[in-house]
Amino acid sequence: MENADVYVLSKLRWQFFGSLTFRSERLPERVRTSMFFALIRKAARDFRVYFPTLPWCLRLERGARRLCSNQTFLYTSQRRGVRCGMPRI
Predict the structure, then answer these.
(1) Long-range Cβ contacts of 82-89 (<8 Å, 24+ apart)
(2) Which residue of 1, 18, 30, 66 pairs with 7 in a disulfide if CB–CB is 3.0 to 4.6 A?
């Protein structure tokens, strides 16, 4: 393994992978991060999972030409009966 983070992350069974791309660098980093947490809170609510117990991982990346920034994330519900896919409405 490369480092301790990779080892710990490999022990979980991740259900969802996503990437958020922001065109403008003018948007502050705290706003981008709060948008990620809003998305994760919505997913937790849709899947009826208590948000503080929801495992997640977020990686912040810069674009090749610094024209855009990316946030790559993983999360899982780890609740029995919840499967990958869209929640029922």
Answers:
(1) 82/15, 82/47, 82/48, 82/49, 84/15, 84/16, 87/46, 87/47
(2) 1
Joined together, the tokens standing for residue 58 give: 């977020």
At residue 65, the pLDDT reads 63
- Which residues fall within 8 angstroms of residue 52, CB to CB, at 6 or more apart? none
Q: What is the pLDDT of residues 23-69, one digit of tens each?
A: 777 788 888 889 999 999 998 898 888 888 888 888 888 766 666 77
CA distance 55 to 35: 17
Residues ≥6 apart with Cβ < 8 Å to 85: none
State the Rg of the chain over Cα: 15
